[in-house]
Design brief:
This protein is of the alpha+beta class and 980 residues long. The protein has 29 helices and 25 strands. The protein has four domains: 312 residues, 2-Layer Sandwich (Beta-Lactamase); 173 residues, GAF domain (Beta-Lactamase), CATH 3.30.450; 183 residues, Hypothetical protein af1432, CATH 1.10.3210.10; 127 residues, no CATH class. It is found in: Cell membrane.
Length: 980
């Protein structure tokens, strides 16, 4: 056993034996004093660096928490009391884990706001918010409802049950006007605010904020100066040491205990304290008796000073005591045995020098342990042991901080990566691999709820080299875990099903010693594979505010030596945070897919309804997207001409184009069938030629009555008969001419128009009141007509034939830059006006009504709030009637204005119309006829020549024909004569 004794006894013994020499006295006094001060300075540097690192780490954690919360991609609107918000459990979790945080919240660009405050039993917080005494949590929301801004306060107990609520109208708080919001929204980097007074608590603090990943708002994390001061007070410097935080204006941000009379944001220069005087360099003389360190923190935008000061004697007192003892002993022995004392003092100095070197290593965060012989001197022995203990403690603390920071950074990175990934399988794989990495686990499984059971989705085991599910392409072969037994009761025998039902995490140290759950299947698997599944951590996958959708299970955590250990509580919290993020992301993915499927179904339903609306459109809206997509795929593969740089790079771009194709004729919902189907000039809902025929019948009856009246009056029968026959022949001939004009088969020459107007001048007598039996809307149109009996013309354009527009659409269409002329009237049903149509059967108003379907398509689609990746849907849907030379409609665009997808849509729309076999008004063109007609469109620059060439060269025309054309329509096409 090594004998140790005090240094003072050693010196007394030496004094009895010999006298110390002057050299020994000089060595102890000069070298000892200098070394003691150097050791003390190095110790203070190490301690102050540790204190500063702890404070900086606290601020970094606040910023990291803000970054973690900001990585949650959510478009959730704030409404009501916010207690059902999906983000709320994550906010509670952050506040529970970080006791120094006062509150977390987010503000959105529309001015809405959600905040969670942890009272932590502090009376000041409860009183300032007018909360009940037992309030543990405060949830605050600000939102707009029916044009009015409301503020809701919810006060919750420890179990998060609502104690009471309070609603306020028109609060004076707008997050968009706060510095933390303004600074964070302007860039994507995290921001740490200067000190300011909180709106609700009326106490000063700082805020770590960061713009949300979806850029719809900003997330903030509050740290009050009171909590920061408590944290600072817990950082031990020395017995009389002190730590202060102040800003560039010398305002107090945080101060240690023992200064109850001062306040935050007070003037530091007015504090009467020696350490403060040293920090502010008020006196040079006093500074020699103090150590100080002032770290200027300029991070994340904030500007703070961290000052640590301590009396010199706190660190060198033991050396001073030892020095005095050695000095007294040396004076007694100054004459005797100078060489012995000098050698002895030199050895003592080497010990102190070694301690000084150790202090320098600690200052530079080097914690290597040196091998040295234990000293016989108790003071040195205790001091060396203290150094070793401090070195180990600082090394462990630094290592723990680094590990926690690394895992937190990895968790944030995983959250951001998962939010950006659209493939559900890859997301699930990232979750499992991320959990294994965080916990250093040997294996794991991810389950999802499907058909009342937990299906294996992803399996990994490093030792057994098992890789199933995810991107591996190997489907898991294990049977699902039942959630319910045959009696319909919840299955709590399996740990994973229990986790789902109870919505709790389960941490098992050793499955072989666990009797709470059935691990028989696990043990059988282990026996078959020579494996031992020992430690388990099972976490439910539960999205914010939703039901559990699955479970994450990892097993066999390993230490650095590869030994199986239990999952620590810290690791469990990290895995739970990852699982919460993953569950929300997976839930959002499923919700997004369901919304997209619903949107696709609704779009196809609308297109089908348009096709079914008229027998003259058939399956047009369904076939055009098919042809357009086929041609677009070939265009993406092309390396020629204008198509060389065309490419749909993402699924969103393909979906955008497909939806545009499906909706290209959605404006036809406003086009009446009787206009589209109009076969004769007088046709509306029925053919009005029958009204004209009835009038001719009346005129013929009138002629016959005149004949018989002439006989009764004694006239010459043969002469009267001849007059009747002549009149009858003329009426029959005139009616036949009017009926021929109504068919619209020939061009209306000037002589025909003159005859039509001559026939129209014939009159007949109306004997009945035309104003009877009218609808409410018709009455104003007939108001000015003469009472019966009245003489009327055989054909006439009457006032009630002019149908006014219910609203003026010119301003709307001009804003959309439509160039198609808009007729004055909605419809003109004048008889002479319609019968005088030069070609075809449509009036100017009716032609515009048919053309208007494209304008309505654009107007309807541009009013829809499409997301950014679907902004071109109106363009794709509304340009298929434009031409390459600006002669199309509705905007008169030319080639430089038309994108490749728009040119593809134009060709697809024309070709489908030419080859459609379900149009009763025309015979379907054969394949060769349709291609020939398209070539004329190409020649006239109505369609893009390169797209037409691709249509032929790629064989899309033939592929489409085999799928959609009748066998008798498909014939040989010599495409060489049409290619450029």
């Amino acid at each position: 056993m090594r004998v140790r004794f005090k240094l003072s006894l050693t010196l007394v013994s030496l004094a009895v034996i010999c006298s110390l020499s002057i050299a020994t006295l000089f060595s102890i006094w000069v070298l000892g004093t200098r070394t003691a001060k150097e050791v003390a300075g190095n110790l203070f540097t190490a301690v102050s660096n540790n204190v500063e690192n702890q404070i900086v780490n606290l601020l970094d954690q606040s910023v990291a928490n803000a970054s973690l919360l900001a990585s949650q991609k959510s478009d959730e609107a704030v409404f009501g009391d916010g207690l059902n918000a999906r983000i709320l459990p994550l906010y509670f979790s952050v506040l529970e884990q970080r006791k120094t945080i006062y509150s977390v919240y987010f503000g959105q660009l529309d001015g809405s706001f959600l905040q969670v405050i942890a009272t932590r039993g502090r009376e000041a917080v409860i009183a300032s918010h007018k909360a009940p005494e037992n309030t543990v949590w405060i949830v605050r929301t600000i939102y707009s409802k029916e044009g009015e801004r409301l503020q809701n306060w919810s006060f919750l107990d420890a179990q998060k049950n609502v104690i009471s609520q309070r609603e306020e109208v028109n609060p004076n708080y707008d997050p968009r006007e706060r510095p933390w919001f303004i600074n964070a929204i302007e860039n994507s980097d995290p921001h740490l605010s200067d000190v300011y007074v909180y709106n609700s608590f009326k106490t000063p603090g700082i805020t770590a904020s960061r713009r949300m990943v979806n850029e719809h708002g900003v997330v903030g994390v509050d740290l009050t100066l009171t909590e920061l001061s408590e944290f600072v007070s817990n950082q031990y410097v020395s017995e009389n040491g002190t730590t202060w935080i102040y800003d560039n204006k010398n305002r107090i941000v945080a101060f240690p205990k023992g200064f109850e009379s001062i306040h935050h944001l007070g003037d530091l220069t007015r504090i009467d304290d020696p350490a403060v005087d040293v920090i502010l360099e008020k006196t040079k003389a006093q500074a020699e008796d103090y150590f100080k360190s002032v770290e200027k923190l300029s991070k994340y935008g904030a500007q703070f000073n961290i000052a640590v000061a301590a009396p010199l004697d706190d660190f060198r007192q033991s050396f001073i005591t030892m020095e005095r003892r050695v000095l007294n002993a040396s004076i007694l022995c100054i004459i005797l045995f100078i060489p012995i004392i000098y050698v002895f003092s030199a050895r003592l100095t080497r010990r102190v020098s070694q301690l000084a070197e150790d202090a320098k290593q600690i200052e530079h965060l080097e914690f290597r342990t040196k091998s040295r012989k234990p000293s016989h001197i108790i003071e040195f022995y205790e001091l060396e042991n203290t150094f070793d203990e401090m070195r180990c403690s600082l090394a462990l603390k630094t290592q723990d901080l680094a590990t926690s920071q690394e895992k937190l950074n990895r968790l944030v990175e995983l959250g951001i990566a998962m939010s950006a990934e659209r493939d559900t399988e890859k997301v699930m794989e990232m979750v499992l691999l991320g959990a294994k990495e965080l916990a250093n686990a040997d294996g794991g499984t991810l389950y999802k709820i499907e058909d009342q059971a937990l299906s294996f989705k992803i399996l990994r085991n490093d030792t057994l080299n098992v890789v199933m599910g995810g991107t591996s392409g190997v489907k898991p072969s294990f049977n699902p875990v039942a959630l319910f037994n045959e009696a319909g009761e919840e299955n709590h025998k399996n740990v994973v099903s229990h986790t789902v039902h109870a919505s709790v995490s389960v941490n098992i140290v050793d499955a072989y010693n666990n009797e709470d759950f059935d691990f028989s299947g696990t043990k059988t698997f282990d026996d078959m594979n020579g494996y031992r599944s020992q430690s388990f951590l099972t976490v439910p996958l539960k999205p914010r505010g939703g039901d559990v959708i699955g479970a994450l299970q990892i097993l066999n955590a390993q230490n650095e030596k590869g030994e199986i250990i239990a999952f620590s509580a810290e690791i469990q919290r990290f895995v739970e945070a990852l699982a919460a993020q993953a569950a929300t992301i997976l839930y959002n993915r499923e919700l997004l897919e369901a919304q997209e499927n619903l949107m696709d179904s609704m779009i196809q339903l609308i297109a089908g309804a348009i096709d079914a609306k008229s027998p003259y459109t058939g399956g047009h809206c369904e076939r055009v997207p098919e042809l357009a997509t086929m041609l677009a795929r070939k265009a993406c593969e092309s390396n020629d001409g204008v198509l060389a740089n065309f490419q749909f790079k993402t699924e969103e771009e393909w979906r955008e184009f497909s939806i545009g194709a499906w909706l290209h004729d959605c404006g036809k919902v406003i086009t009446p069938e009787y206009v589209v189907d109009k076969a004769t000039k007088l046709e509306t809902i029925y053919n009005r030629i029958h009204e004209i025929r009835t009038r001719f019948e009346i005129l013929l009856r009138d002629a016959e009555l005149a004949y018989y009246q002439g006989i009764l009056d004694g006239g010459e029968p043969d002469e009267l008969k001849a007059t009747l026959e002549k009149r009858k022949a003329k009426l029959i001939d005139d009616y036949a001419f009017v009926a021929e004009c109504n068919v619209g088969g020939e061009f209306m020459a000037d002589e025909k128009l003159a005859r039509l107007k001559s026939i129209a001048e014939e009159t007949w007598v109306r004997n009945f009141d035309i104003k009877l039996g009218l609808s409410h809307q018709e009455e104003p149109l007939y108001a000015e007509l003469p009472e019966a009996p009245a003489k009327e013309k055989l054909l006439e354009d009457k006032p009630y034939h002019l149908i006014e527009r219910e609203r003026d659409i010119r301003q709307q269409y001009e804003a959309l830059e439509f160039k198609t002329p808009i007729p004055q009237y909605l419809y003109n049903r004048g008889e002479i006006y319609n019968l005088s149509i030069a070609r075809g059967t449509l009036t100017e108003e009716e032609r515009f009504k048919i053309t208007e379907h494209v304008m309505q398509t654009i107007a309807m689609l541009e009013n829809l709030p499409f997301p950014a990746h679907m902004k071109r849907i109106p363009e794709y849907a509304g340009t298929h009637h434009e031409t390459m030379i600006g002669t199309g409609y509705p905007r008169g665009l030319s080639a430089e204005d038309l994108s490749i997808p728009a040119r593809i849509m134009a060709l697809a729309d024309i070709f489908e119309a030419l080859t459609a076999s379900d149009r009763p008004y025309k015979k379907a063109k054969t394949l060769s006829e349709a291609v020939k007609i398209l070539s004329f469109f190409k020649k006239d620059e109505h369609i893009d020549g390169e797209v037409f060439d691709l249509f032929l060269r790629s064989g899309v025309y033939k592929e489409y024909a085999e799928r959609f054309l009748l066998p008798e329509q498909i014939d040989e096409v010599d495409i060489s004569q049409y290619l450029s």
